[in-house]
Design a protein that fits this description.
The chain is built from 15 helices and two strands. It is mainly alpha-helical. It has two domains: about 50 residues; about 240 residues, MetI-like fold (Orthogonal Bundle). The protein has a two-stranded antiparallel ribbon with strand order 1-2. α4 packs antiparallel against α11. The two termini are about 50 Å apart.
Length: about 325
Amino acid sequence: MIDIFSKGPALSRAPLHFRYSRMLDRLRLNLWLYVLIAPALVYFALFVFLPLGQGLVYSVFKAGLGGLRGFVGADNYLKVLASPVFVQATINTLVLAAGITVLGTALPLIPAIALAEITPEPLKRLLQTTIYTPYLLSGVIIVGVWSNTLSPIGLVNSLLLWAHLIDRPIAFFASPFWARPLVVGLTVWKDVGFHALIYYSALLSLDEDLLDAAALDGANAWHKIRYIVLPHLRPMIALVAILTLQGALHTFDSVLLMLNGRTSDQILTLAVFSYQRGVLQFDLGIASASATLLLLLCLVVAAIAWMLTPRTVRL
C-alpha cells in the first residue's frame, strides 16, 4: 500500500546514481544557458572577485611595487583611520554622496514627466536625445565642457560681466566655495537623462484612466503629480536613490580631474585617496586598507538605505 501522506521527498530515498543522473539531465537541458552566462561569470571572477581578494590580502601586508614585504596585521587599517586626510576624505565622500543622491533622484522627475506629457513625437525624441547625450560621454569630456563654460573667459563669466552682476571673473574651478557644488552639479547633469528614462519607462505603465478620473474630479496638474504620479513612481524612486548613492560613494574621475591645491580639502574622496596612496605613492598596503574601508562604508550605507526604504516600495 502506498502511503501518500508520507513525509520527505521520494527523490531523497532514491539511489545516489539516480540523483546524479537527474542532475546531469538538468545540466544538459540548460546547457546553452550556462554557456551564455559563462562569459559574465569569467569577467566578474577575473576583474571583480580576484582583485577584491588580492586587495584584502594586501591590506594586511606591507606591500609595494616589489610585492608583499611582511605581514603587519591591522597596522595598515590603524594608520589609515588615524590619518587626518582619510577622515577629511570620508567627510567629503559622505557630503558629496548626499548631494548627488538627493539631486540625482529628484531632478530627473522633471524631464520624465515632461516626456510623458509631450505629444508631438519629434519633440519627444529631441528631448530624449538631449537629456540622454551627457550620459554617453566620459567624465573627462564632462569636466572639459564644464571647465570651458565656467572658465574666467567662458560663457558664464561673460554673461555675468555683461549683466553687471560681478566686477571680475570668478575662478570657479579654483574656488573652495564652488568645489563641492561643481562636483555634485556635473555628476547629476551627466546622469539625469538615464534616470529620467527609468522614470519615464515606469510612467508608461500608469493607467491613464486614473488621470482622466482625477481630471473629472477637478484635480489640477499638481494634484495629479502629487497623488497619482509620485506614488506610482515610489518603487523606481527608491531604486534610483540606492543606485545613485552607491555610485556617488565611488566618485573618482570628476574629483581627480578637478583636484588642486585649493580644492583638495573640499572634494578629496576615499576613492581618490586610495588612488593617490597606491598609484602615486606606491604604498599598496595602505591603499588596499583604505579601499577595503570604502567597501565596508558602501555596504553599511546600502544596508541603512535598504532598511529605511519602506517595504511597500521595495522591488
